[in-house]
Amino acid sequence: MNVEDRVDSLRSRHARIEQDLDVENQRPHPDDIKIHELKREKLRIKDEIAAIQT
Questions:
Q1: Are the CB atoms for 45 and 14 separated by under 8 Å?
Q2: Are 15 and 26 in contact (CB under 8 A)?
Q3: First-last CA distance in the chain
Q4: What one-character DSSP code corresponds to residue 1?
Q5: How would you label 1-33 residue by residue, b for 16+ Cβ within 10 Å and e otherwise?
Q6: Which element (helix H / strand E) includes 17?
């Protein structure tokens, strides 16, 4: 897997996590722990993308 493929894969995962966050936040009683974990994973992916591109 080359660098561009890896970045594309990470961006795709980042977008899926964003969708998962939206779904969770739309629930009548969102799970705060799940939201926290999703946000943490989203940030980790964002940091990995930034590290690859520098």
A1: yes
A2: no
A3: 18
A4: -
A5: eeeeeeeeebeeebeebeeebeeeeeeeeeeee
A6: helix 3-26
Cα dihedral 31, 33, 38, 42 sign: positive
Q: What pTM did the predictor assign?
A: 0.88
Instruction: Give residues with Cβ within 8 angstroms of 35, minimum separation 6.
Output: 21, 24, 25
- The angle at the Cα of 27, spanning 42 to 46, to the nearest 5 degrees, equals 5
Per residue in 40-53, is it b (16+ CB within 10 Å) or e — as a string?
eebeebeeebeeee
- pLDDT tier, 25 (very low <50, low <70, confident <90, very high otherwise): very high
